[in-house]
Structures are given as C-alpha cells and as structure tokens.
Amino acid sequence: MVGVPELPEVESVRRQLAPELARRQVLGTWADPWPGTRLSDVDRAVGHRITAVDRRGKFLLLPLRTGTATPLELVLHLGMTGSFRLVPTPSPGEDPDGGVSHVRVRLHLDDQRTLLFRDPRRFGRASVVPAGDYAGRVPTLATLGPEPLSDAFDPARFAAALATTRAPVKARLLDQRLVAGVGNIYADEALWRARIHPASRRVGRTRAFALHTAIREVLAAAIEREGTTFRDYQMVNGASGRYAEELTAYGQAGRPCGRCRTPLRRTTIAQRGTTYCPRCQRA
Ligand SMILES: [Zn+2]
Q1: Ligand 1 mean position to 37 CA, how many Å?
Q2: What's the 252 CA to ligand 1 centre distance in angstroms?
Q3: How far is CA 223 from CA 7, 132, 163, 187, 206, in A?
Q4: Which residues constitute the domain of residue 235?
Q5: Which secondary-structure segment (H or E) carries 208?
Q6: What's the 244 CA to ligand 1 centre distance in angstroms?
Q7: pLDDT, tens only, 139-174
Q8: What CATH number has the domain bearing residue 95?
Q9: Catalytic positions, please?
Q10: pTM for this prediction
Q11: Does 55 map to a domain?
Q12: What separation in angstroms does the CA of 151 have from each of 133, 160, 216, 238, 247?
C-alpha cells in the first residue's frame, strides 16, 4: 500500500525524534540547492539549540533558542515521501549521507550525529522562520484549523463551519481549515464510521457531531498503533512501521462493507481517490 504520511504517522515520528533532538545544538547544515525543493533558510538554524519537537497537523515544529529577541522555528513537513535518519556524523572524505539516498537536508548536531531528511519526491518542506510567523512563508500552516485531539476542536463550531458551504464534506476535511491534519486515509475512515457519504454537501448538526467524534476516534486509534504503514514511509530509525490491518474503508474498494456487506465503491472527490459504502453512507 502506498500513501502519504498523515497525522498519526507524523506524531509517531515526533515521538521518536523528540528525545533525540531536544537540547541538541545545530553546528552546521546543508540543503539541496535544486530550485524545485521547498527548502528555505535552513542555514539560519546554525548555532542555535533545538528546545523541543512539536507538531501542528502534519507539520513538525522545532523551536530554536537563539538568545535574541526573535526566536526561530524549523518547520518540517514530510510531504509524500519524507522521512528522517539519524546517522553518525561522517568524517571528511566519507559519504556525507552514510549511504542514504535522496537526502535533501542535513543537520549536524553537537552529539556527533547528523539528522538526514530524505525525500525522493521532493514534496517535503524544511524552512527556518521567525517563531509562529507563517503568513507568506508557510501558507497552509498559517491558516491551519484546530488540532483534532485538542479541546480547540469544538463540535459546535465544527458543525457551524460545515453548514456554511455546499462543498463536498470530504473536500472540506482535506482543506485543513476546519480541522488540522486529516488527510485522505483518515477522511475516508471517519466518514465511513459516521455513515456520511464523502460527496455529501449537507451535513446537519447531528451528523457533524458524529463526524467530529469519528475523526477523533480514528486518529486516536491510529496514533495508538503507531500509524499506518506505507511503502515509502519509514520511521526515524529506518525500520518500517506496522501494516494497516484495521482500515475499514480506505483502499478497500470491492471488499464488503464491515457493517452491511455491500461492496465498497471507489470514486474521486477533490482529486483524491475515495472509498465509501454506497448503501450505509448517506448523502
Ligand atoms: Zn455499508
């Protein structure tokens, strides 16, 4: 199965990186100079200490203590194929990536290790920005909705926002402004669980509350089992995660619905492959 890292996978990476990177000083950096990359100002991290590894939606945020009035932040996004490796910092003359291919960013740390950001398809991001100042720099982050597992994700506000447009509900979930971090996989899973057709343009208050609950349930369960596994996705240590045995909708077209046994159907919504039950998910 191929897919992009979603919130549970990014949270899993965050939990692995946090103890390795917190309090480490960045001694030097390298970023792929190819103009098509989404890498900017990575060298501004040099000389500063990483204070934490945080997450907003599918973004990793690494605050940098600068010792000045303007703290900085390293913003990382895995895109479609991004992953991290921690390797011993190579000596001069050795392969700077320790045999790892498609490396786009290196952060040399003060513990003789180097963090490699590997990204074959180059949709990932690494940018150093003034802390919290995303407008014009990282637009998706600037307009990101509330964290789905936090109290800021309020069911009444979610229902009211869903009622304001007639766009397909799945498109509203994917655009990140109603709620952060719900991608293609967990949108399909949550809509199946809430029995809402992904193309539905009218989601009333009761169904919106059910969808709010379903989003939290599917994300919490996925974080619990350390995210779903993907061919191009690897953990920080290079080991791949576990297989997604519990997906009920995403990628299951043709298989019987877990509730009503009707074969699940595949369609396209918001340019994304979408799987749903034509019988028990109602428009
Ligand atoms: Zn069904």
Answers
A1: 42
A2: 12
A3: 8, 25, 29, 15, 26
A4: 155-276
A5: helix 205-224
A6: 20
A7: 889 999 999 999 999 999 999 999 998 899 999 999
A8: 3.20.190.10
A9: 5-6, 58, 272
A10: 0.87
A11: yes
A12: 23, 16, 11, 34, 26
